[in-house]
Amino acid sequence: MALHVLDLIGIFVFGITGALVGVRKQLDVFGIQVLALVTGLGGGFIRDVLIGATPPAALKDWRYLVVPIVAGLVTFFLHPGIERLERLVNIFDAAGLGLFCVTGALKAMAYGLSPLSAALLGTISGIGGGVIRDLLSGRVPVVLRREIYATPAFLGATIVVVAGALEYDAIWVSYVAVLTCFTIRLLAIRRGWNAPLPRTH
Amino acid sequence: MALHVLDLIGIFVFGITGALVGVRKQLDVFGIQVLALVTGLGGGFIRDVLIGATPPAALKDWRYLVVPIVAGLVTFFLHPGIERLERLVNIFDAAGLGLFCVTGALKAMAYGLSPLSAALLGTISGIGGGVIRDLLSGRVPVVLRREIYATPAFLGATIVVVAGALEYDAIWVSYVAVLTCFTIRLLAIRRGWNAPLPRTH
Amino acid sequence: MALHVLDLIGIFVFGITGALVGVRKQLDVFGIQVLALVTGLGGGFIRDVLIGATPPAALKDWRYLVVPIVAGLVTFFLHPGIERLERLVNIFDAAGLGLFCVTGALKAMAYGLSPLSAALLGTISGIGGGVIRDLLSGRVPVVLRREIYATPAFLGATIVVVAGALEYDAIWVSYVAVLTCFTIRLLAIRRGWNAPLPRTH
């Protein structure tokens, strides 16, 4: 499965999270589409602008536009009851985080960035869409909640970056990296894992 | 009337909306200028960065900087009473939306983007300045209010994109597109038009 | 002392402000690192993307990544008591503002932008990191508080731009510009300097 397929799946699941937040905010169908689009495409836009790959992939290939629109429409018609919305947002968001941190790191390496920079860019790609979604809809940005969020994205990106630095590019490395990020993020939510807090006095 | 004149008028009217919001928030004269600048130039910056036209037009041509500064100063000295501010914001914002969705789509086509991408980029150009203005000033972003907002921008952009795809580039098409977006947006506010809401249960 | 050293110091002090805000919000150690990174690197990312210098310096040179991480860790372990946090944020933020408005303007001139555009880009570089920090952490963006903020940045940038236009590039001009911005900003806070407000009636 090629890089752009993972990218499209990431756009789809992030699009769903945007639309679910829109449903929760009781936006109308167009507002929900806007949130699905910016959440699905935002991380990739930031990634492509930063590495100088403009216009971004999503503006050169119509499938990148159709996917979040479909995600928005599916969510609009088939969303669950209000009480289950937030849990679904978290699950799909974790999937998008895993997919985008990997595709972002791979694309950054393909554009010649150093390993450390590629890992950072993968992390930015992963967290970008969710941050834009939360800023626009007036939620506390997910990276700033007291939850493990950027760290699993950095871990997932690091896995593919290390494999790339060793010139080992088997596709299963990408799958492992996506799953690692996704699993750690979900476990962190379920178990309420906490990182150390600053001391106060 | 050339593309860049429409662009400058768009910057002027969006600059006015930024300054009016600043007046409403009781910012000082410099804060009002900052809001006029970011609102006037924000949509074009996003457009130019996404299509790779950097530095953006506004950083290459001094008129693009003078226009929002004048808009801010005029508004600072001549703004109406508080009670009429919000209505004026809406009217000027609708004009900027119409102008930018058209100039954004035209510029995207000139840079070789596909019709669908050009329509999306026009929409992003149109809504960008207002979103930045609302985020900075702590208002609910205009695209996420339960009002028709992104849709007229997409319609206006689509008109010039379809005409462009048919290689029909008479200037009146642009005027019609601007007016279509502007009129639909204003009617949507006045009449309280609503798009379908998600079901809740 | 070369341009990139001033840049790195700017990243360090802005990184500290981001981390201090994170401590104040009681974020965990990873959330504090995220805020340190986006605040330290945000202004430079915006600058480099706008002038087309992609990938940004911070993604090409590992020192640009290490500096804000160190700033975040130092702040996490050594931050002062809660009651002194806000004052420290203001002081380090004023230092970052002075450093970035100067390095931003110098880099913009090196990329061939006109004097007015270079001054504006320096201002944007200076205020960018703080605005991102405040948006993410739910504070009123510093440019929109009723305080002198963008103006000293514009002054500092103008000093190096005027010197550059006169082809006088002695390094002490940059130091004077940094100090001018820093001093005016701090005096504005201490003395509560106000710019004129819009009339209301």
TrEMBL record, chains A, B, C:
Its main location: membrane. Keywords: Cell membrane, Membrane, Transmembrane, Transmembrane helix. It is found in: Cell membrane. Residues 5-79, 91-163 form the Glycine transporter domain. The chain crosses the membrane at residues 6-23, 30-50, 62-79, 91-110, 116-136, 148-166, 172-189. InterPro entries: Gly_transporter (IPR005115). It is a multi-pass membrane protein. PANTHER family: INNER MEMBRANE PROTEIN (PTHR30506), UPF0126 INNER MEMBRANE PROTEIN YADS-RELATED (PTHR30506:SF3). Belongs to the UPF0126 family. This is Trimeric intracellular cation channel family protein.
